[in-house]
Design a protein that fits this description.
CATH class of the largest domain: Mainly Alpha
Distance between the termini: 38 Å
Strand content: under 5%
Low-confidence stretches: 1-18
GO biological process, one term: regulation of pH
Shape: globular
CATH superfamily of the largest domain: Na+/H+ antiporter like domain
Largest sheet: 2 strands, antiparallel
CATH topology of the largest domain: Na+/H+ antiporter like fold
Family: Belongs to the NhaA Na(+)/H(+) (TC 2.A.33) antiporter family.
Number of helices: 17
Structural class: mainly alpha
Keywords: Antiport, Cell inner membrane, Cell membrane, Ion transport, Membrane, Sodium, Sodium transport, Transmembrane, Transmembrane helix, Transport
Organism: uncultured Sulfurovum sp
Catalytic activity: Na(+)(in) + 2 H(+)(out) = Na(+)(out) + 2 H(+)(in)
């Protein structure tokens, strides 16, 4: 069954290196939308109490006298989301090494636009919430949800050039890196030195594995799991362990691809030299040849590419949907919704994600092009960059994640933040899509 069949035609315009990445992000975006709607329905149904109680159920792991106990909500946000951040780390590493961020001339515009798209929303939010109990939420409107943003862009089909998709992908990757740094530096309340040292030691072991040419996944998984645990104990948010671990995964193949084609052809010719068995079973020697071909493919591949490919689907189908189901359910009381939206936190997030992102992404991009610091992506127009800037205001997944950290244990402020995030993301996505669909023209 082809998971991408309903929108397969939309990808014919996308360059080959992006195809799998865009497929995965679009799948994530559509599933994320469905699970968000489901969470909102459950939170506003007769099952609301059962829905809330389920995610507040304690889940405990014991090993002798050692115990690790958290709610299911906490396990999702600190445990499963570490896998999501691991994928982000692999994507960042790939883009820096061989992707759009590897060429500084191409990367400069999305890098500058992403920095502007983080600074302006934070400044706008702070200008509204300075000196209030919502001050700590300044990081919430800085983030862009790459899955939703790319989904909206890809669904436009041939109306947009490939270079615009490339621009958004590079921008979103830089945005993710900025969000990770903000979480690590500003949303860590208390540091416990000894567990942090152990986490650092675990990372050095991962680096040593890399340097010694170990390409097996299992050793990295075991040490990475230990590093995640030490991060939890240190006070630094555990999801940062996912990003750090990704940096240590080997990105170079064991063998260079030189001669691979000829070696494979020779093996296939040898395979074909054996007669076909009537019982459809292959010869023992043929099995060995197939095994050698598979080993050859693995040898010219890299663990980082293999992990990124293998984990995208589980993250899209399990991790992100569970995160949305656990975090997007808010009680919608239309009698008080107008009051909630007018709270400083909600206003700060809405104006930050919509106007802040447009000022930051489009404004900085326009200045960079105006003063010839960077070039406009080939075949695109400033009008299309304006539309993409609005799509950058879809801050769903990462914004909710930061909101939980910023207003930890304060349900009322988290509620106001989530209302602002949902409203802003909906408006930004709708306007960005409509602008690119009906107004913006390619150059």
């Amino acid at each position: 069954m082809n998971l991408y069949a309903p929108w397969e035609k939309a990808f014919k315009k996308v360059a080959t290196p992006f195809e799998h990445f865009i497929h995965a992000q679009t799948t994530t975006g559509i599933i994320l939308m469905v699970m968000t709607i489901l969470a909102l329905i459950l939170a506003n149904s007769p099952l609301a109490d059962e829905y809330a109680n389920f995610f507040h159920t304690e889940l405990t792991f014991n090993l002798g006298s050692w115990e690790l106990s958290h709610t299911i909500h906490h396990w999702i946000n600190d445990g499963l989301m570490a896998i999501f951040f691991f994928i982000i780390g692999l994507e960042i590493k790939r883009e820096i090494l061989i992707g759009e961020l590897s060429n500084i001339k191409v990367a400069l515009l999305p890098i500058l636009a992403a920095v502007g798209g983080m600074l302006f929303p934070a400044l706008i939010y702070l200008s509204i919430n300075a000196g209030t109990e919502g001050t700590n939420g300044w990081g919430i409107p800085m983030a862009t949800d790459i899955a939703f943003a790319i989904s909206a862009l890809v669904l436009l089909g041939k109306r947009i050039p490939t270079a615009l998709v490339t621009f958004l992908v590079a921008l979103a990757i830089v945005d993710d890196l900025g969000a990770v740094l903000v979480i690590a530096l500003f949303y860590t309340e208390q540091i416990h030195t000894f567990p942090l040292i152990l986490a650092g030691g675990s990372f050095l072991i991962l680096i040593a594995f890399n340097r010694f040419g170990i390409h097996m996944i299992l050793p990295y998984f075991i040490i990475g799991l230990l590093m995640w645990f030490f991060m939890i104990e240190s006070g630094v948010h555990a999801t940062i362990a996912g990003v750090i671990a990704a940096m240590a995964i080997p990105s170079k193949p064991k063998k260079t691809p030189v001669g691979f084609t000829q070696e494979t052809k020779n093996l296939l010719d040898e395979y074909d030299s054996y007669p076909v068995c009537t019982d459809h079973m292959v010869h023992d020697r043929q099995k060995r040849i197939l095994f050698n071909i598979r080993n050859g493919i693995d040898a010219i591949g890299t663990p980082s590419a293999r992990l990124e490919h293998d984990l995208h689907l589980p993250v899209a189908l399990i991790v992100i949907p569970l995160f949305a189901l656990a975090n997007a359910g808010i009680l919608i009381d239309f009698t008080s919704m107008s009051t909630t939206i007018m709270e400083p936190i909600s206003i700060g997030i809405i104006t930050g994600l919509i106007f802040g992102k447009v000022l930051g992404i489009f404004g900085v991009a326009w200045l960079a092009i105006k003063f010839k610091i960077a070039n406009l992506p080939q075949g695109t127009s400033m009008s299309q960059i304006f539309g993409v800037a609005f799509l950058g205001g879809i801050g769903f997944t990462m914004s909710i994640f930061v909101a939980d950290l910023a207003f930890m244990n304060n349900a009322e402020l988290i509620f106001q933040a989530k209302v602002g995030i949902l409203v802003a993301s909906l408006l930004a996505g709708f306007f960005g899509y409509a602008w690119l669909r009906f107004v913006a023209k390619s150059k």
